[in-house]
Amino acid sequence: MSKLVIVESPAKARTIKNYLGKGFEVMATIGHIRDLPEKAMGINFNKNYQPLYITIEGKEKIVSQLKKAAEEAEEVFLATDPDREGEAIAWHLSGLLGIEAGSKKRVTFDEITRSGIKKGMDNPRGIDIDLFDAYQARRILDKILGFELSPFLWKKVQGRLSAGRVQSVAVRLIVDREREIEAFKPEEYWHIDAVLCPEGVKKEFSARLRTVEGTKEKDFKIINREECERIVGELDSETFIISDISERPRKRVPEPPFTTSTLQQDASRRLGFTARRTMNVAQELYNGVAVEGHGTVGLITYMRTDSIRISADAHNEAVDYIGRVYGEKYVHKAPRAFKTRRAAVAAQEAHEAIRPTMAEVTPAIAAKTLSAEQAKIYRLIWERFIASRMADEVQNTVTVNISAGKYRLRANGSEVLFDGFAKLYEAATDDKKEKSNKLPPMELTTGLIKKEIKSEQHFTQPPPRYNEASLIRALEENGIGRPSTYASIISKIEKVYVRLEKRVMIPTQLGIITTDLLKQQFSEIVDAAFTAEMESDLDKVEDGNKNWVEVVDEFYRGDEQYRGFKSSLEQAEKSLEGKTFRPPDEISEVVCEKCGSNMVFKTGRYGRFLACPNVDCKNTKSIEMPGACPKCGGKIVQRRSKKGNLFYACEKGKDECGFVSWSEPSAEICPECGCTLFIKKGKKPGLYCVKEGCGYKKDAGI
Description:
Elements: E1 3-7, H1 10-20, E2 24-28, E3 34-35, E4 43-44, E5 50-51, E6 54-55, H2 60-72, E7 75-78, H3 84-96, H4 114-122, H5 129-156, H6 167-183, E8 188-198, E9 205-212, H7 225-236, E10 241-252, H8 260-271, H9 275-287, E11 289-291, E12 295-297, H10 312-325, H11 346-349, H12 363-366, H13 372-388, E13 393-404, E14 407-418, E15 448-459, H14 468-477, H15 483-496, E16 498-501, E17 504-507, H16 509-521, H17 528-542, H18 548-556, H19 565-575, E18 586-591, E19 598-604, E20 607-611, E21 620-621, E22 623-628, E23 635-640, E24 646-650, H20 653-656, E25 660-661, E26 665-669, E27 676-680, E28 686-689, E29 697-699
Parallel strand pairs: 1-2, 1-7
Antiparallel strand pairs: 3-6, 4-5, 8-9, 8-15, 9-14, 10-13, 11-12, 13-14, 16-17, 18-19, 19-20, 20-21, 22-23, 23-24, 24-25, 26-27, 27-28, 28-29
Helix pairs in contact: 3-5, 5-17, 5-18, 6-15, 6-16, 8-13, 8-14, 9-13, 9-15
């Protein structure tokens, strides 16, 4: 008889089977196997919110196969993922297979490698009930909110709308930001720069006007053209004198290894990947992929983690690699004490950060067998981890203060003395970094030759709209949700409440109306602080410091500080009886071919589409995109997959044509074959031709 090991993923099962070998059978649940019923509440409110768990529709055959295999096995191990979701699957499996929750049959793998699997199998434990209870509390809270609030929105706003505890706050952030932008009033200001050259030196440099004698820098502003021209005229007649020169070294440390959130942000900024796409690819790398010279192996550690901790063995392996490849001067031998944005819960701190399982498997080696997107994500993870073990970048910064009569100017320069970690990796950010520049050599006695006085008009800018990366960062900084849930949250809100334009999020009318209604009637539900406090309570459940029933009851029935969701819903139903808040139709320029009316945009289960407003017509169609199908010349339409991802397809469908593309078509035509060019996003955006045999590409700042 063999021992049975049960995991979630078939790919993960195959990798583990290769390592365990004879005497072991490895099977997969293919995700969750039991849950609350889809079309009923499934919660007994009179018995401490007792949940009714049932086998998920379509999973009956898998459950039957697992039961049969468990009966025939000598021993059964539950090896689902090391997080709340994985603990929940293990808990359900223990009940279905008759395994005592306290018996040592639960094993976890932080990495799917020979050593990682051996470590997990050598340290079995019982089901972590606190971890399961944290999952259960979250699941019941979300079920109550979705099952009772969504029908309210159907009646008051529009059918098929969904409400979520975290997604509603995410939409509010986007709506509030849009209103900030609309209310923003730009203010004029001017910069004045003097182009100077030290005597006896050919190299010029710029010094910016910072203040006027008797005024603090923070209070000095040039607010109109007249004032700017007056100052330029006065500066033009002044002698420029160096009043102070200061030099100091500056060290720049690398970023810590990736957490779930920072990986999603970096992949969005660098590669243009959605959070969902990033997590799907990372899951593949964790489950196991073929690597030349290593067989099938998990290339990265577990990718759902808030921790930046790295094991001593992994640190030493990285340090050894850096010393051999880059030289000892690039090694930062003592592990850094990186700061975290907020404390991770104990179970998350038990994990490591996301890192490669083998430092010697470089991106170049891995790319030989990985898919293109797997290779890109692996490169990010590998480089970020290795860089975090490398020496600091060392710069020499120079500040030159200059007097010109009553005016004070300043020039800043920097020079990289030692590149350190920057030789390998630079983190991507939404903020533009100033390029380092080396000032020409100067001393206090050096005379300055004035070459030019330049002025430039500016206007203050409104806060930027959120993109996926900045929204994830805002959710994390506010303690809203968990990084492992961000991908699904963003996918849900982009279907209905938000539209994407050039990768930024703009709330739809439906998103604005729904958010305003929730703010009015359910202020706590869309309040970031309240939602963050709930996340903190779930962490306390996971730590064993709070009862899950208490958390659910405080939300549903309320306490001294909060009236409770049940009371809020009853009050909203009563106060808004007979009232509706329908969003106005957004009229398109597309004319209905059946009746001649201008079609309007509607939102359905799979996102936006066009519909005829004429009640007697009922014509609908997908949103038409620019260009033509490169396969048959037909029209290209926008569609959305069941998972919520946008794609583009020929209007003739699978049977007549079959063309589909994840890339958005542009209005430009290929100069070589005349077909529509498609937009390539990511680190090097541009346009490319998808027609077979063409291969035309064009770089562009899209």
